[in-house]
Known about the structure:
Layout: E1 16-21, H1 24-34, E2 39-45, E3 50-58, E4 61-67, E5 100-103, H2 109-118, E6 127-129, E7 136-137, E8 146-152, E9 158-164
Parallel strand pairs: 1-4, 5-9
Antiparallel strand pairs: 2-3, 3-4, 6-7, 6-8, 8-9
Amino acid sequence: MGQAKNTEFEFxxxxxxxxxxxxxxxxxxxxxxxxxxPLTKTINLPGNMGQHYxxxxxxxxxxxxxxxxxxxxxxxxxxxxxQLPRRGNFVSAQGSMNHIAFDVAPEKFDEYVxxxxxxxxxxxxxxxxxxxPTQISETVTDRVFVRSVYFFDPDGVCVELAAWTRALNDSxxxxxxxxxxxxxxxxxx
Length: 189
C-alpha cells in the first residue's frame, strides 16, 4: 500500500500461494463458485501423486491448491488458527500460514460482507483496525487504516477480505520498536 521501494529485487507481487486441500471438488466449489475466482489451470500430477489447481485472485496473482491422496490431516491450532480473529485463539505454529488476505476496494467492503453472509459464510465481526490501544474501532474513523472480515474455507484455511482505507506512510512504521527474537518466546506450557 505504501510507496516503499525494494532496491534489491524488482518483485511484481505474489505469483501464487500454494496450499493443500482435503477435497479438491469442495475447494473448487468454494473459491470458484462462491468467491468467484476463475479456475485458470488444472494439473494432474504424474504417477497419481495428486492434483495442482490455480485460481485467479486478481492482478494476475494466483491462489493454488495441491491435493495429495496421502496428505496428513489438518491440525487446527497448530498448522492453522483454531478460531477466527475476535472469536478465540488465532495463534498458529511457527512456519505455518496464519491466513491469506485478499485486497478489496474500500467502497465495496460492506457490500462484500453482506454477500458473504447471503452465501451462508460464517464470518467474524468486521474489524476496523486502527492504532488505538485495542487496535479496533467499532466505527470507521480517520484513524482506521484497514478494514477486515475473516472466514474459513472448507479446509480451515483462514481467509480475510481486507480494504485499505488510507495510504500508509512513514509514520506507520515505528523505527524505535525492537523486533522480537526467539529468546522472547514464552516457555511451552
